[in-house]
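User: For my dataset I need records formatted as: sequence, then structure tokens, nothing else. Please produce one.
Assistant:
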Amino acid sequence: MHRRIIAPGALAAASLLLAIPASAASYAPGAPGIGDPYYPSYGNGGYDVSHYDLRLQYQPKTDELQGTTTILAKTTQDLSSFDLDFLLDVSEVRVNGTKAAFTTSDQHELVVTPKTPLAKGTTVTIVVRYSGVPSAKSAYGFTAWHRTPDGGVAADEPEAAWWWFPSNDHPSDKATYDVSVAVPDGTQALSNGTLQSTSSKLGWTRYNWRQNKPQTTYLATLAVGKFDITTGTSDGGVPVLNAYSKDLGDNDGAARASVERTGELVDWLSGYFGPYPFSSAGGYVPNTTTGYALETQTRVYYSPRQFANGANTSVVVHELAHQWYGDYVSLKGWKDIWINEGFARYAQWLWSEHEGEGTAQELADYVYAAHPADDPFWTVKPGDPGPDEQFSAAVYDRGALAIQALRNKVGDDAFFAILKGWPKEHAYGNASVADFQKFAEQVSGKPLSALFDTWLFQPSKPAAPAVRALVKTGTAVERPKSWKKIEATNDVHGH
């Protein structure tokens, strides 16, 4: 028998080979964008977030924010590094308890390189320490952080998170949240979900908020200022918390007369969309100069300008409808915006009908007749409008027309079954326009591809069968009484 002699150097080399995982070559940086064609650099590849824990301190006088955000995530590929979407100044990043290298890239990317590469399927805890003045930061020529006379507000679409916490900023990655904010005594901090507790120490009051249901990053909100806060419970048992800046001036009464009806309107919408899906409801009206409202989950953001012409329950209906269509079921990609805006607008049409100010069909007739065939309104495709037209009035109004066309096609029984069944079908998840068409076909038992193509995807005015005969004959269509208030929300996200 001959014994094979192996040199010591060869043994060492063999040991080294054994120590390197066979898949080492597969470790690669996560993509700096999640792949959305509208916003290629938004979100990130390589991981999925399950929870955000934010511990913040904010000084309203100087707009200085200090924070530590802990992110719980799981890798979806072998990662050598990964990105977070963020703008403030970072002092430290830890991955699974160990300090990680980090740098910035492009306009809003924080690139993190962990000490040890992360295998696919690994549970990861990421801790980011940071500080900065949010209003001093901008990306792509704008800021989504709004200064107020007594504080600041984070509320914008399609992005707002970058200015106050690092995240995977795309609607397809939903997570739960704990948001703890310390502010000077006499100032309040508002966020999503329920207020778990407050405590005061050395001149600072800490507010601890919890959102226990999945939430997209752009629906997370923070408002710091001096508010008058009201609380209550709807007849249906939903806790309601509303807040009004103490310096709203002439808009104060109209804002309260609208937003204080939140509980009533949540219960009313539940009749169409199913049980309210979250632990609380409400809204807040800070003293901002913006003109839009936003369906920030459970705690809707309203600009005072929404109430400059008096009370407007229609805008409250719009934003509350989003709690089902947009928040409970969120879009898969930004091209699916019709599911958010078309249905929120249609809820306003149903409210108009309820109030005796014009039926949904009368509103459909009016919108159809108000836009001649050569109006650029018809060139916008609500089912895929493109980033420049994402919040065009056509996405809202033509989008609602498409829903009325669907109602006329399938009949009221199937239509209202679709309206209520859809949120339950994709509860706390994400869905696309194609998913909605498939669901509507299943419930109604009718092929709907031609209808969806005509009303959502063709850049031209559809033929008239979806509306009443008087429109076909060119007869003038009377403007419904509710139209002025509905039209006032056409720029509800126009920012």
